[in-house]
Design goal:
- With 201 residues, the chain is mainly beta.
- The protein folds into two domains: 2-110, Immunoglobulin-like; 119-200, Immunoglobulins (Immunoglobulin-like), CATH 2.60.40.
- It is 0% helix and 55% strand.
- The chain is built from no helices and 19 strands.
- It has strands at 2-4, 7-13, 18-21, 26-33, 39-44, 47-48, 58-65, 68-75, 84-91, 98-101, 105-110, 119-121, 132-140, 147-152, 155-157, 161-166, 169-177, 187-192, 197-200.
- The strands form four sheets. Strands 3, 5, 6, 9, 10 and 11 form a six-stranded mixed sheet that branches. A five-stranded antiparallel sheet has the order 1-2-4-8-7, with no helix packed on it. Strands 12-13-17-16 form a four-stranded antiparallel sheet, with no helix packed on it.
- Strand 16 and strand 17 (169-177) form a beta hairpin.
- It is rod-shaped, with a radius of gyration of 26 Å.
Length: 201
């Protein structure tokens, strides 16, 4: 609550955070009472949301209610780039600057890696007994995070693995010394998510 020009301006309802599945539609609501000439706008990650003709997925609807001014931010066909911190902001008519803002509401986008993942790699040349071999299993960094692990002949491999994250990819590396007894063994990379499970040989 704050005072402006003798009027008491109150956030009667503020946007709330949520977890949204990729491709769904979502709306954020903000209700402010006591506004006279102030402007109610939306911010994402600290910057004003600018509506353009090229971005038709996002729209803002405004109307008056009995308890104040309602502003609704609508996001159609949610994409990864829509994840972030949202808030409604009141702009002073005198200075044109922010006079008050709601708490930030975080949107998390739930998604799966692209269909081609996981990607596994192995040595291009023949493997010689006594040498060291590195196998890698690559997937995308998404939310919720995927879990990767290797199996050898359908049994879990829990040693000599290293997980790294670079850019939008996550890589599980398996380093192992080879011997003649390893001939014919089958290594598989497994990808797990709360959404789906997928394996790759």
């Amino acid at each position: 609550m704050f005072h402006c020009c003798g009027a008491v301006i109150v956030f009667e309802d503020v946007p709330s955070g949520d977890r949204i599945t990729l491709g769904e539609d979502h709306a954020l609501y903000c209700v402010v009472s006591g506004m006279v000439n102030e402007e109610l706008i939306w911010y994402k990650d600290g910057r004003q949301i600018q509506l353009t003709e090229d971005e038709i997925r996002i729209s803002i609807a405004k109307r008056e209610l009995s308890n104040g001014n309602l502003s609704t931010l609508v996001i159609d066909n949610v994409m990864q780039g829509d994840a972030g911190l949202y808030q409604c902001v009141i702009i002073s008519p005198m200075s044109g600057s922010v006079s008050s803002s709601s708490p930030e509401a975080e949107l998390l986008i739930l998604s799966l890696p692209a269909p081609e993942y996981p990607l596994c790699s192995e040595p291009d040349s023949a493997i010689i007994a006594g040498s060291t071999v590195e196998l890698t299993c690559v997937s995308e960094r998404v939310f919720p995070k995927v879990r990767l692990h290797f199996t050898r002949n359908s049994e879990p491999v829990n040693t000599r693995t290293m997980l790294t994250e670079t850019g939008n990819l996550v890589t599980l590396s398996l380093t192992l010394p080879t011997k003649k007894d390893n001939n014919g063994e089958i290594y598989e990379c497994h990808q797990y998510s709360s959404q789906i499970t997928k394996n790759h040989v």
